[in-house]
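Possible regression after last week's pipeline update?

I re-ran a chain I had predicted before the update to compare outputs. Posting the input and the new output here so someone can diff against the archived version. Not blocking, just want to make sure nothing changed silently.
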Amino acid sequence: MSRDFLEIAEEHRARYPLMEPQDFAKLAYQSEFGPAHMVQSPDKVLAALMAERKESGVAPLPPEDVGNGLCRFHITQALSTLSELPLIGRMFAQTMATAEGTEAGLAQKLEVLAALPVPGMGEYLEGWRREGCPPVRHSETFRAAYNPHYRVLRRDYAGFLPALVPIDRLTREHYAAYLRLPRPGDKLSEERPSAYLRRHGVRPYVVAVDGRCGSGKTGFSRVVEQLIPGTKHVAHMDDLYLPWEERAPDWMEVPAGNMDLERLQREILIPVRAGEPMTYGPFLPGAPVLDECGDPIDVDPDDVELILVEGTYSQHPSLAGHYDYKIFLTCDREEQTRRLQEREGDYYPTFNQLWRALEEKYFAACGTEAAADLVVDTTGFFG
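New output (post-update):
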């Protein structure tokens, strides 16, 4: 949910009582436009993060909301140079590439700041406007008192970091397995590296992302595609509904009774683990029979390093043994309701009474959240 910039500014003022007018201006600029750094190569970004980590504190610090779906993510020595920092570097670059803002939006934020009882605020903002509101550094007072070390990131990126780390690790392990393989003569030059992996029994890793409706599962799969290197395929549970005429009479009483879990195993999970090509047709809600699914989706395991199965029911106990890692996304009831009302519109009452209730029965009956390798609460990730 979007937050009022006045509330955000007051929070920062309470947290950092020595803030000066230029520190508030920096906050407004970051809230509107995101990171204000020159574009650098990934290597230079990572080197800068590693150097900054050495100068920072030891204890981890929570991200600080700056509004507009952005946050200040603090760089501390609690972050691993092998796992988190490379991911943060990619998050930073992607945030810079996608952050949007307008001069009008910044002007509104400056009007908010002008009303704060901060000595010298009006004079500073007037001079800053005359200069065209360029990017601004923290004041020396702020730097001396608080030793800031952070990067401005999308808030969902920062929140998803714990879930991205294990996925990133799996893709690095896939590459490491390739590097460890023997290379007799120039055999490797005669075939694709991926086919060489398959011949030696190295298959794609398989990750499942289950969780409550509205918790951000589909959004998380897009974040994985944006931030995790390598070639990936995302399989959506929405493509694997069981046709209406094939559902049992009591399907609403059976956990995942509306899903074709057998087809998921037969067409995706078992072939992937065997290193074989997989083919599946996405379910079409209006199709009367299974044969009328959409055009087949073909995936050769030689061509991918990661298969991500996304959606509610993906971690049903009958499927759990096929996965290398299981992530469960959740959010508090109030925020879930707000998101679903926004997403479903007039259909929300029906969705809430039917589908939301069915998935909660599934979670309770199957212990899905407790069985996951990692649980991530996305309540404060968006808006």
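Follow-up from reviewer: compared with the archived run. The chain has a mean pLDDT of 91. Marking as no regression found.
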